Structure to design on (229 residues):
């Protein structure tokens, strides 16, 4: 299983250091084959060492240059970071990243050899139209994406389940992941109000290869409930 913690705009450099120090002490109990990813805010990135991978929540598709407020590969390389989230619904819907922009980022970081967690998802309005409409929307989010790239995984996050406390049902996750596997044969993570109370049920679903976690990842104890379940 893959367990990815997305801090979003939470934690400081100091609290991230404390979190990682605490987490690393307890990761000795995790399954050896499981992978743990941590995506702190950009201001808290550092060359942390341990049984986990540190990634960037976002970066601009450049080495360096005149892009005020952005970070490029040069800044990430200082901390040996070559893992990135691309396409998260909050960047698409709140920050206005179009599919064209998302695809450009994917192509650039693919060329850099980055490990990419590529996020897709649908609104409640689309979900209520049925699986066919959901899949049509999800497939459109692969436009311009090289799905043959070996070093990426897909995170399916129904937007209506992110931070709402509402989790997609086992049936909804099963049907969606089964359909996605036929389109993109890559590791598939589920995201959307994953917590200790439902991790065993979600992890047991065929074609769920891991989870991308927001709120439950912000404290080591709640994130470890998932990793060590």
């Amino acid at each position: 299983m893959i367990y990815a913690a997305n801090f979003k705009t939470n934690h400081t450099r100091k609290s991230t250091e404390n979190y990682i120090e605490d987490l690393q002490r307890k990761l000795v109990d995790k399954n050896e084959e499981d992978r743990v990813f941590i995506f702190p805010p950009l201001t808290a990135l550092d060359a942390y060492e341990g049984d986990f991978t540190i990634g960037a929540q976002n970066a601009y598709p450049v080495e360096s240059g005149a892009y005020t407020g952005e970070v490029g590969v040069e800044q990430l390389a200082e901390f040996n970071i070559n893992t990135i989230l691309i396409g998260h619904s909050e960047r698409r819907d709140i920050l206005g990243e179009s599919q064209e922009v998302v695809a450009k980022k994917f192509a650039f970081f693919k060329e850099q050899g980055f490990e990419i967690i590529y996020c897709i998802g649908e609104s409640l309005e689309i979900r209520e139209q049925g699986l066919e409409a959901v899949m049509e929307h999800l497939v459109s989010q692969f436009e311009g994406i090289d799905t043959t790239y070996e070093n990426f995984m897909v995170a399916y996050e129904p937007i209506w389940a992110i931070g709402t406390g509402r989790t997609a049902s086992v049936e909804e996750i099963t049907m969606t992941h089964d359909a996605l596997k036929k389109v993109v044969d890559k590791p598939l993570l589920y995201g959307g109000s994953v917590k200790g109370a439902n991790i065993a049920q979600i992890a047991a679903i065929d074609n769920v290869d891991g989870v991308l976690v927001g709120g439950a990842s912000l404290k080591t104890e709640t994130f470890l409930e998932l990793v060590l379940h």
Remarks:
- DSSP finds nine helices and eight strands in the chain.
- The longest strand covers residues 115-120.
- The domain at 2-227 is CATH 3.20.20.70 (TIM Barrel).
- The two ends are 11 Å apart (CA to CA).
